[in-house]
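Task 17 of the worksheet. Students: predict the tertiary structure of the chain below and write it out as structure tokens. Keep your answer in the requested format; marks are given for formatting as well as content.
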Amino acid sequence: MLEGIDVLVFDIQDIGTRYYTYVWTMALALEAAAENDVRMVVLDRPNPIGGDRVQGNVLDPAFASFVGLHAVPMRHGMTVGELALMLNETQRIGAELEVIRAEGWRRDQWYDQTGLAWIAPSPNMPSLESAAHYPGTCLFEGTNLSVGRGTDAAFQQIGAPWLDHEALVEALEGYELEGVSFEPVVFTPVRPGDGKYGGDTVRGVRFTVTDKDRYDPTITAVAALVEIQRLHGERLSWRSSHFDRLAGTSALRAGILAGASLEELTADWSEQLREFEGLSRRFRLY
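Model answer:
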């Protein structure tokens, strides 16, 4: 496919989350460019949920897949250009790589502060609000709960016909999580791409960002999983291998099933993130 190509250009909008596959397409393209002595240019773009926060766990390489090819956090806080530079060096890809910086962007800026129009990078990423929750709510893709695909609020809400959504909201409010509010909702997915509850009445919980500088969607999603397991352990089911690929570990699912608390499940995340930031900081362009 690369025969006769002088330069391979990557110019695609990422949303700052490990599961979003565009950056892994970029990583594989980097490998192909290196193998075929083709120069690669990455046209950098803003990280729409900011570049000054890293959150979640860091993927265990044993669980590498196309929804997480290398050891980065759920919310990685990097741009596509920065990731390209980091992967090219740390994975010893060795491609001839040039990154064209995005002019005028600061790490603390979210997409709505750039003056750029939001153009959905994929059908189920309709808004910045969806992107803000995606680092957490995408985990529910590995369960039998809907993430709102087939609605206009994909990844802003989760639910199932059997969910006691009011009890779940009450439980989540008890955590006093910062930067987010919860609301019991009812929605009906229309031709959802994941095949979950199409045409059915779904009882769900809507997540709304109230302070984006304090909100941690990864912690919030794990809290929701803990409480759904407590409320509906007999109804909650897992697409185990897919959930573990998304989570980047089997320990999270195993811990939830064993009744571990939110604090126990996330106890080592801070150390993982410190190590990642120590590595990634030298590849920052902004």
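Marker's comment: The chain has nine helices and eight strands. The longest strand covers residues 180-187.
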